[in-house]
From TrEMBL:
Protein name, UniProt field: Sulfatase N-terminal domain-containing protein
Chain residue ranges for the region called Disordered: 27-81
Domain Sulfatase N-terminal: 117-449
UniProt organism field: Tetradesmus obliquus
Top-level taxon of origin: Eukaryota
Length: 1239
């Protein structure tokens, strides 16, 4: 459905805009082909229009057959392709028709002899060749870009020089390593983005090091991704000034300035440029030459947010609105990418202005490129027409994506990139096709800045300073060079040998504990002559491209870099050229393997520069027990005897407190014994190394898994000191698994040789904290910098002891979750039912609330039908379908272990306000049942206050719906709460429409405002949702009123967050409800599949995207649960319940979707800094007014279905809770407005 939406949007909008441009394009030279296609396109547009008209009628009938849908999709794709051709997009092997501009003399004259230039090098993130406005054909007006809009980058290109044969690398970390070192990234120790190969060796000189040696002041701003351990950050690697943000946090970023944390305000890239402007101003005043390395995070999508995120790009206003206003309007993906692109283009414009304002523009080179190609959504990769809208060049592939046709991820779309440079003596508007790479940048800067005679490893790159002047010509070396790269990929099909080496093997090491060179694992070909790592190499030479995996050769001419058969070289010519490539690639690879730093991992520094704490990353292991450990991002121990060894350099000797940071499965009775050994290899062989052993408990909750377990203290000498080897190693080993249950002891199987099914252990870090020695600083990332001053410096030994106590407090030592539960409550494990998905009712072992009262019976998952209104029970097959769908999520194991005890720790002592429509009502009932043993059944359900005036004011704010155009449809519930034992409560406030939450009118406050001024406490948590508008249903969701309501909620949050900080806005789950001609369609007895309903995923994504965009601009925390519920919804379709049990197939039954969202809420507490309050009795003493004693004014009544009426008649207690005013009273006039002030 999403693909069809993309196609339909482009086919209709592009046709309308292109062909209304009339004959203007037809009169241009060479336009006969375009005109011919234009006429054909017009005919197709007419057909499309009538087809679209008929489609509106078809929605009333059953869904079209799959064949008809595919045929329609094919027609739309062909229609879009035809339209793109007419605009000048690539067609087959014909490159796109792009604008041209004149070449003129340099805008900035060459520098006089003796004056040193300055440099600003910009390395964008995921910004491919096609992500530049000048690389798109012109739109219908013949002037502006038909796609990406980058006016400031365009100006840089036209005012300087650009290169069309420039190559980056497959992924982020590799590109940065290559640019910073001037060397092919595999030579440096960098191989990949993760698995411990993202950094490069400390023996490699960076651009910062080189330019510092030449007398330059150096500065870094933005992304790094070449090592995050102590000693590998930019302030250790040649940069006098460094501002390193927290990854992908685009608003109010917590940055590190030269290693010290600084909380910033505003948009991250603008903050960085503002800091750069200050740096430039200083250089303008002191006259010192400078080198700036700016690495923005744009246009990379947010890698830290859940995959379910609707809009993964940062698209602040007004950029998104400006892009959406383009004609033709872009599709959803392009709108998001181009909005972020327009944002960073604006930021770059500010940077260019800052250079000019510093007075140094006449001496400053500005260079812009990127690390790798673009990232495309799956539907763009598989559909040529959609791909062309983003990549008009017609190049194949994108970053790190395996192309099945080519058998590689080393495509032009992944590797070819842009390079633009302006500065002294650079001709304006010049375009050059010399073959260049990221490795050429540092040698070029060094030549221009007279920094060639500096200490560094031999550069792979070649300076292109000779090209940066009028009439510059490529040297013979540049013309004849062979250029190769390693295309490591996360896809095993691309380079299985390298993936296996990084994940399962690691290179063999010799007696000196260094990588053996050569060795079979690193060979170009295997013993039989077949490909080994040759599979991972691609090359360029002159106009040719070669794939080592297949030997295929392509020829790029006339600007066409399109890897299709029409550009492929075949026959004898292919064999000759492939043989030349093969010979050169074999020599190149042999030189890579012979490099002293290639294939090495990091050496972690302990006590460097006086810093106390160091994280030793498990992925940095240089040796593992093959078959027993896997290196993913952490180290995954899969068998007893699994061992990893990591290199460290003990800079400051002394006593170190060592803690393990890990994640493990909880299996009752199973204990894992580990050993930690630190010393030289010879000391380990002779059992002379320092050693600690510990039993590491399973960590059940997500909160627990962010903690450390203290292993103990180790006294470590300085590496290389007398009596020890120069190489210190840290080895961590799974010694044994023990079954401590009584049954195991009886049967004599207390020690296990293999782990049981479901067991796992992932080691993330070993944290070393210096207790004694000369250190005085600590780089902390375990939460707060306890005992530290504003700069992170420990002021006294007492302060450090506070930090040590904090680590000990973070050690999880409770082996059974029930030990942390109050009132003696405990649960026994059930084989087939997790506590979260209905197990609470049957698995309580002690301390349970009664199971025979009506409150508990309403939570009985075996009840069919359920007697308790509001808690409709899912059919068992529905719950099973939900769990099956969730099992694909990484967090599913955590859900299986999730306990009410964990959630209770957050709810104790505060009120959780659950606020929203019917979806949230069932969420409240499901939450109440999950916490069945933690609320006081004797009190039943209580109103939020005993003051009826307050209750009426809250009720009034929550019921604007009755006066809306929906007429007499009243809200279905009055506000109600359950009180938790030991303090705390869960309260529900029904609110159908977003306008009810917050209003700018102090005379008519919204629900949140009334709660904040009456019964809410500063520590309370507000969980909000108004994803469905309930007014003309789906269409109303996109109305301006929806946006306005979101803005008012955001504004209220900003005004009150200092007093009421704990807010979460939960995005809506996917919905089954069908929309018919924009009107509301009531729930039917049979579920409507998502693919057939009028509320498709694309609409839900757009709705939630609006909420995330608007509320995100106000920093309102978002709880995103939308995307996973699409699969859950389909699970409900597959297993419809009996008609008499539940009518709504998605969010009106439990256990299922509400429980999943409950778990996600608990995780959001952690990620948003909402902390347990501990034992507080702040709410348990509140007077409790039973819900039955509160009556809304006449005419404001409950809305009850027939099942609840029947149950009310049969159950007096339930009748009291769910009593209804006679239906006739709904026709009575509303009583006059309550003229009462908020108390």
């Amino acid at each position: 459905m999403r693909l069809q939406k993309h196609l339909a949007l482009y086919a209709s909008c592009l046709l309308l805009c292109v062909f209304t441009a009339g004959a203007a394009a037809a009169n241009k030279p060479g336009s006969s082909r375009a005109a011919e296609r234009s006429n054909a396109g017009n005919r197709q547009a007419s057909s499309s229009s009538s087809s679209s008209s008929s489609n509106v009628q078809v929605t009333k009938a059953p869904v079209q057959s799959q064949n008809a849908a595919r045929q329609q999709q094919q027609q739309q794709q062909e229609q879009l392709q035809e339209t793109l051709r007419s605009l000048g997009y690539a067609d087959g092997c014909t490159p796109p028709r792009l604008p041209t501009w004149p070449v003129t003399s340099p805008k900035v004259p060459p520098l006089p002899a003796g004056r040193r230039p300055n440099f600003v090098v910009i390395l964008a993130d995921d910004m491919g060749w096609d992500d530049i406005g000048l690389h798109h054909p012109r739109g219908p007006d013949g002037v502006t870009s038909a796609g990406a809009q980058t006016p400031n980058i365009d100006k840089l290109i036209k005012g300087g020089m650009s290169f069309t044969n420039f190559y980056a690398t497959p992924l982020c970390a590799m590109g940065r390593a290559e640019l910073l070192t001037g060397r092919d990234f595999p030579r440096t120790g960098n191989l990949y983005n993760t698995r411990g190969y993202d950094a490069f060796h400390l023996g490699e000189a960076t651009a910062g090091d080189v330019m510092q040696q030449a007398g330059y002041v150096t500065a870094h701003y933005g992304k790094w991704h070449n090592g995050q351990a102590l000693g590998y950050e930019p302030w250790w690697r040649g940069f006098n000034e460094s501002w390193l943000p927290t990854d992908y946090i685009h608003l109010d970023n917590l940055m590190r300035h030269n290693g010290r944390y600084v909380q910033t305000q505003g948009m991250m890239e603008q903050v960085l440029v503002d800091n750069m402007a200050g740096f430039l101003q200083q250089r303008g005043e002191d006259g010192k030459p400078f080198f700036v390395y700016y690495a923005p995070y744009a246009i990379h999508k947010n890698a830290k947010q859940p995959k379910s995120k609707v809009n993964p790009y940062f698209t602040p206003e007004p950029y998104l609105s400006r892009v959406q206003a383009l004609q033709p309007p872009p599709d959803e993906h392009n709108a998001q990418v181009w909005a972020m692109l327009l944002y960073i283009d604006d930021v770059l414009g500010r940077l260019f202005e800052a250079v000019a304002a510093s007075g140094l523009a006449d001496s400053t080179y500005i260079l812009l490129t990127a690390d790798n190609g673009p990232a495309l959504p799956r539907e763009f990769i598989s559909n040529e027409a959609l791909r062309l809208t983003r990549m008009p060049s017609g190049m194949v592939g994108d970053k790190n994506i395996f192309n099945e046709n080519l058998g590689s991820s080393g495509t032009e779309g992944a590797l070819r990139n842009h390079l633009a440079i302006s500065g002294p003596g650079v001709p304006s508007g010049a375009v050059d096709d010399t073959l260049l790479s990221l490795a050429d940048v540092l040698p070029t800067i060094a030549e221009l800045g007279n920094a060639r005679d500096t200490r560094h490893m031999p550069w792979s790159g070649i300076s292109f300073a000779n090209l940066l002047k009028p009439g510059g010509k490529a040297t013979k070396e540049q013309q004849e060079r062979f250029m190769f790269t390693l295309v490591a990929s996360g896809d095993k099909r691309q380079c299985p040998q390298l993936v296996q080496m990084m994940r399962e093997m690691l290179p063999d090491v010799g007696p000196n504990r260094e990588v053996l060179r050569p060795q079979p694992m690193l060979a170009y070909t295997n013993k039989t002559g077949g490909n080994n790592l040759k599979d991972c190499i691609v090359g360029r030479w002159k106009e040719y491209k070669w794939y080592g995996c297949s030997g295929r050769v392509f020829r790029f001419a006339n600007g066409s870099h399109i890897e299709l058969p029409c550009n492929e070289v075949t026959g004898a010519q292919q064999r000759t050229i492939a043989a030349a490539f093969d010979k050169q690639a074999r020599q190149w690879w042999a030189s890579v393997v012979a490099e002293p730093h290639s294939f090495t991992k990091q050496t972690f520094q302990l006590g460097l520069g006086g810093w106390r704490a160091s994280n030793v990353e498990a992925s940095g292991a240089f040796e593992i027990s093959r078959g027993k450990v896997l290196i993913t991002k952490p180290a995954n121990f899969t068998a007893v005897g699994g061992n990893i060894c990591i290199k460290v350099n003990v800079v400051t000797p002394g006593r170190y407190l060592v803690a393990a940071m890990y994640k493990s499965a909880f299996i009752r009775g199973l204990e894992a014994d580990f050993s930690l050994t630190v010393g030289s290899h010879s000391q380990m062989q002779s059992s002379a190394a320092a050693k600690k052993s510990a039993t590491l408990p399973a960590l059940r909750s997500e909160e627990d898994r962010k903690r450390s377990y203290v292993l103990g203290y180790l006294d470590l000498p300085r590496s290389g000191s007398s009596g020890s080897s120069s190489s210190t190693e840290v080895c961590f080993k799974l010694e044994r698994l023990r079954n401590t249950t009584a049954a195991a002891a009886t049967q004599g199987i207390s020690t296990l040789s293999t782990p049981p099914a479901g067991w796992y252990f992932y080691l993330a870090n070993l944290r070393f904290v210096l207790q004694e020695g000369n250190a005085s600083r600590s780089s902390l990332d375990l939460g707060e910098d306890l005992g530290a001053d504003e700069e992170g410096v420990f002021g006294s030994e007492d302060a450090f002891e506070d930090f040590e106590d904090a680590i000990l407090a973070l050690s999880y030592t409770v082996t059974d979750a029930e030990e942390s539960c109050p009132q003696g409550i405990s649960y026994r494990a059930e084989k087939d039912r997790a506590l979260l998905f209905g197990g609470v009712y049957s698995a309580c072992a002690s301390g349970c609330q009664p199971r025979n009262d009506e409150w508990s019976q309403g939570c009985n998952p075996s009840s069919q039908p359920n007697p308790f209104r509001g808690y409709a029970v899912c059919h068992p097959s529905q719950t099973a379908a939900v769990e099956q769908g969730l099992s694909k999520l990484p967090a599913f194991a955590d859900m299986q272990d999730f306990s009410p005890c964990q959630l209770y720790s957050y709810l104790q002592g505060r009120t959780l306000w659950v606020m929203g429509d019917s979806l949230m009502r069932n969420y409240y009932y499901a939450l109440r049942c999950f916490m069945l043993d933690f609320w006081d059944h004797a009190k039943g359900e209580c109103a939020p206050s005993s003051n009826e005036r307050i209750l009426r004011s809250i009720y009034k704010s929550a019921d604007t719906n009755i006066t809306s155009s929906m007429g007499s449809r009243a809200i279905t519930d009055v506000p109600r709460c359950v009180h938790l034992i030991g303090g705390g409560r869960i309260c529900w406030v029904q609110s159908v429409r977003g306008e009810e939450f917050a209003t700018p009118n102090p005379q008519d406050p919204g629900i949140l405002q009334r709660l904040q001024h009456t019964v809410a406490d500063k520590d309370d948590i507000f969980l909000l949702n108004f994803g469905r508008w309930h007014y003309t249903n789906c269409r109303g969701l996109e109305a301006e009123g929806y946006r306005q309501a979101l803005k008012e909620v955001g504004e209220l949050y900003q005004k009150t967050r200092s007093e009421f900080p704990n807010w979460l806005f939960k995005t809506s789950t996917h919905d089954h409800t069908a929309c018919r001609e924009g009107k509301r369609h009531e729930v039917t007895d049979q579920c409507i599949p998502a693919v057939e309903g009028g509320y498709p995923a694309s609409l839900g994504q757009r709705i939630n995207s609006i909420a995330e965009s608007i509320l995100g601009s106000y920093s309102v925390p978002i709880l995103d649960t939308y995307q996973p519920t699409i699969a859950m919804h389909e699970g409900h379709i597959l297993y419809p319940p009996p008609r008499s049990t539940v009518r709504d197939c998605l969010h009106y039954c439990s256990p299922g979707i509400p429980e999943f969202e409950m778990f996600m809420m608990a995780r959001a507490f952690v990620t948003n800094g909402i902390k347990p309050l501990g034992k507080r009795d702040s709410t348990s003493s509140l007077q409790c007014l039973p819900v039955t004693e509160f009556r809304p004014p006449a005419g404001w009544s409950y809305y009850l279905d027939m099942i609840s009426r029947n149950q009310s008649a049969a159950s007096p207690a339930m009748a009291g809770v769910h009593a209804a005013i006679d239906v006739q009273q709904q026709q009575q006039l509303l009583e006059p407005e309550l003229q009462e002030q908020v108390l």
